[in-house]
Give the backbone structure.
Amino acid sequence: QVQLVESGGGSVQPGGSLKLSCAVSGFTYAIGWYRQVPGEEREGVSCISREGTITYYAESVKGRFTISRDNAKNMVSLQMNNLKPEDTAVYYCAAPGVNCRYYTSPRRADYWGQGTQVTVSS
């Protein structure tokens, strides 16, 4: 059974850090992190290849977010540093496919977690 479960969201002040985790079970695919603000389209934030050797980032988070995975623990993480108010959103992990080629198109992802709220506010 394919399952993805996010954890680690919360509230933080601008400039702060949070680490999101995604527990993956039932398959080994590329994993992407996405976020969505109410009333807006869901967007791809980052993606990591199945082996963990290739990573991708949206321009808005480059240099601030780091994606990683530990396949032995079936875990994918997103370390978020220097958070900004515009990072506020519900964050989801999902499987965009065998690789990250289409991670910027959320509609192509087959499996999704339930989401975790990240709020950046002073």
